[in-house]
Amino acid sequence: MDMHFYLPTEIVMEDGCVLRNKDKFKLLGKKALIVTGRNSARICGGLDDVVCVLSKNAQKYAIYDKVMSNPTIECVYDGAQFARETGADFVIAIGGGSPMDAAKAIALLAVQDISREDLLKGNYTGEILPTAFIPTTAGTGSEVTQYSILTDNEARTKVNISSRALFPTLALLDGKYTAALSRDVAVNTAVDALTHGIESYLSLRSNKLTSTLALESISIISRCFEKLKNFTLSRGDRNQLLYASTLGGIVIAHTGTIAVHAMGYPLTYYKDIDHGRANGLLIGKYLRFVLRHEPDKIRDILIAMHLGSIDEFEVRLDGLLGEKESLTRDEIKKFCDISINTRNVSNTANPPGYEDLLEMYASALGGGIYQ
Ligand code: NAP
Ligand code: FE
User: Fold this and answer.
1) 3 neighbors 206 (Cβ within 8 angstroms)
2) Is residue 53 within 8 Å of 19, Cβ to Cβ?
3) Which of 7, 140, 150 is the pocket-test mutation for ligand 1 (most atoms within 8 Å of CB)?
4) How many A from CA of 276 to the centre of ligand 1?
5) Of 177, 265, 296, 341, which residue is least crowded by CB atoms under 10 Å?
6) What DSSP string describes 138-192?
7) Is the pTM of this model over 0.85?
8) Cα 276–277–278 angle (5° rounding)?
9) Residues lying with their CB under 5 A of ligand 2, a single-atom ion
10) How do residues 285-332 score in pLDDT, each as one tens digit?
């Protein structure tokens, strides 16, 4: 059996884990740059807990709270400049995928002079500030991946900065930080995590261990569907979803994502559709495409979700996502042109071609224009 598994991030999951692990923060450095979005770190209580721990440790800190959703390359250069000015020697990210992804690039750019072009090409060394990540959404798994997904306004799409150097040093998981999520963000991020598990399971690079973890993640998220739909999640459910999303991160760290994420990025860039939702709108049609070539894998996924068919899968997902957006013929062509050239589209045993992408976009969001 061939297998390769690499996860340098220390993961701690327990109630109150930030306050209970102040010694782990002490090991990271003397002055923290706390990277967050505008509001969520304050609303969810994460910032208060981190400030409390740093104060007890007599560690200094500065706050960079300008990270927008789908952070731009400009934002991470700005954050890195701020890190240098404040003399931070470690980084703490509190937030969803956006602040976490930005924090990785900021920690890198704070210690290395890297041009935009070299950043995109991966021309830099492994030198980076130590990082502690506290996810406040249960979706991206960014707290355990080597990816920083940034918006590139020059290329007019999202780009993936990927390097082993970007793996967080420490990930602290506590479902209490996700309690203030709106229903939409809770649903969209859970759907993102679900697609990570499914895409990883279908990836050419999956192995026995990643497949086992992927199915575990898929199964947990599926069990929470009804409570997500009615938005009646308990603290225990939130912990389960956070655990499942971290599992999703662990598996995509090894396998990458596949065509669904590739097709989802233009929906986010051009149509402003949330990342997880964008994937959720497409995943059912993608399963139908894979069914033609790898029915056994689709069966495994459906069994993990206690579902009998892809029809049932789509009904359940539609129940979560509600009314769908629609695309024009020109938009579909443009999005196919963008996604066909991405690396992750070919990361499967039977990669979809241009016509397949066209069919998937059209059947998911085309309102029947290609039928
Ligand atoms: P997000 O963009 O980080 O956050 C979405 C919204 O939720 C923001 O308005 C945020 O507010 C708010 N929010 C976050 N936590 C909250 C909480 N606990 N309570 C109330 N509101 C909260 O969303 P995300 O889906 O987690 O991350 C999406 C990004 O991650 C995308 O850029 C995507 O490409 C990337 N991603 C990365 C990976 C990876 O492996 N690195 C994988 C998948 C996706 P604030 O603005 O105030 O924070
Ligand atoms: Fe994702």
Assistant:
1) no
2) yes
3) 140
4) 10
5) 296
6) SS--GGG-SEEEEEETTTTEEEEEE-GGGS-SEEEE-GGGGTT--HHHHHHHHHH
7) yes
8) 90
9) 192
10) 999 999 999 999 999 999 999 999 999 999 999 999 999 999 999 999
